[in-house]
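pasting for the record
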Amino acid sequence: MRKTLIRIAALISVLFILSCRTADGTRPDIIKYIALEPEIWFDNYLSPSHKDTIEVRLWSNSRRSYLDSIPDPASMESSMDWTFWFQDNEVGAVLFLKGFAPLCIPDAVGLHFCGALEEDGRRAIAIVPCYAYPTGENRCDIYTLEDGRWKEHLGFSTDESFTYSEEGEEQELTKEWLVRKESRWMYRDYLDYLRGEDTSFHYVF
């Protein structure tokens, strides 16, 4: 799946704190912008026979428009300024799937994960949002698609690092926390597991 510039910038923004200083210790005063393309995800979201496309675009409530560019982290005084820019512009992610009303995810600047779940003819989509500032602890929300709309089905806590993997390797999310056992989809809540409150798996459907 193609990763967007937003996700790359979010993950490495801390590294730019040093790079955005010049040799004499001064910082740039002019914010530079980089072009932003929609984030695209492919999977069997609606049918097992063909793949569908989910397009993710960023909407700014303060500007009342979709964004076609975002600040270059290297032109900001610090990674926190990059984060504040998204907060100040009230940016959120909007997901488009043909035939369904858009799904809005406030404060998100992309997705870490967007996968289709299918079980005995029932279908759902699991989503882990990406935020401008890495939070570590995150949430996986599972939606069903009914009557042309996204409907919240359930959600569980996770860690955004579970969505990272080397090329060709399966993500820890789908190896350990959102798994298929004996033809059934099951999940385990990360925070409940850490607290020792619940270490068992639960059915998605």
